[in-house]
């Protein structure tokens, strides 16, 4: 591959990572959708965990990729929060269906990556147990209860902690929990208006979680990569089952849901494959 083509592929790959980050940042705002699940679906979960568990080696290994991805997350999370608010009012079912498709389209790549070091009995046991536990946890979140917390600096710090946990624990829908606590709408308005009294404490909360918890997750990956990777697949699968819009009010809405899921799956599958191909080409050139 010529140097010119290598640079072109590297630039295109950077754009793909940024685009994936934008999808993750935007999707994480929508209730029921986990930022950690989307990170896992796009293959960014393990690099994030590795980097935050060991900053020096992680940045050296994944620095460029994660910088582009996290820029995209910020763009989606902050820049598109106003769009998220509009979708919540008008097209929540369609938006959720698209993200269900995004996750489904990445399953082939997730399965392939999880089997990199082989599969054994523990791999399948981990997948089933994590699937059932996450299904039970998410089902419990569906029960009707509410606990209102008044908006404040401490409350927005709490929002950040929930977002951080939502990244470290795939399947944990931070937005859904914030709805229960009555903080979702004030948080969304604060982000859309670039209110630093909302954004700064949230950022502190997110970073605190990302610096405290990934070491344990990274150690688990190192000890049993296959079991942990298949466990993540189980968590992601349970999340998809719980966020699919099952209540269909009309034939038109049902067709819309199916088309949105198919469209999202096709886009994410093609995007995932393109990133994988470009990464392989760039690694070959670098070698």
List its traits.
287 residues, mainly alpha
What does this structure look like?
There is one protein chain. The longest helix has 36 residues, at 251-286. By secondary structure, the protein is mainly α. 82% of the residues lie in helices and 0% in strands.
Shape: globular
How many β-strand stretches? 0
User: Topology as H/E string?
Assistant: HHHHHHHHHHHHHHH
User: How would you state the average pLDDT, rounded?
Assistant: 78
Strand content: under 5%
The profile of the biggest β sheet is:
none
What is the first-to-last residue Cα distance? Answer: 12 Å
Structural class: mainly alpha
Helix residue percentage: over 70%
Low-confidence parts? none
Summarize the structure.
By secondary structure, this protein is mainly alpha-helical. It is built from 15 helices and no strands.
């Amino acid at each position: 591959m010529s140097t010119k083509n290598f640079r072109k592929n590297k630039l295109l790959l950077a754009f793909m990572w940024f685009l994936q980050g934008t999808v993750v940042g935007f999707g994480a705002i929508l209730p029921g959708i986990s930022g950690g699940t989307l990170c896992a679906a796009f293959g960014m979960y393990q690099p994030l965990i590795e980097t935050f568990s060991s900053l020096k080696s992680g940045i050296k290994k994944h620095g460029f990729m994660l910088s582009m991805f996290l820029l995209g997350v910020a763009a989606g999370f902050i820049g598109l929060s106003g769009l998220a608010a509009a979708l919540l009012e008008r097209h929540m079912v369609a938006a959720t269906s698209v993200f269900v498709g995004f996750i489904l389209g990445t399953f082939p790549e997730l399965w392939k990556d999880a089997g990199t070091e082989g599969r054994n009995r523990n791999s399948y046991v981990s997948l089933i147990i994590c699937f059932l536990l996450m299904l039970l946890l998410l089902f419990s979140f569906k029960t009707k209860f509410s606990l209102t917390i008044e908006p404040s600096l401490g409350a927005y710090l709490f929002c950040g902690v929930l977002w951080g946990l939502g990244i470290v624990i795939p399947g944990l829908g931070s937005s859904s929990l914030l709805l229960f606590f009555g903080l979702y709408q004030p948080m969304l308005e604060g982000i859309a208006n670039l209110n630093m009294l909302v954004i700064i404490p949230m950022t502190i909360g997110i970073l605190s979680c990302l610096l405290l918890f990934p070491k344990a997750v990274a150690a688990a990956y190192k000890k049993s990569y296959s079991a942990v990777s298949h466990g993540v697949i189980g968590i992601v699968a349970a999340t998809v089952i719980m966020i699919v819009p099952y209540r269909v009010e009309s034939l038109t809405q049902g067709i819309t849901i199916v088309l949105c899921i198919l469209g999202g799956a096709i886009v994410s599958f093609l995007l995932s494959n393109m990133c994988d191909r470009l990464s392989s080409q760039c690694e070959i050139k670098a070698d």
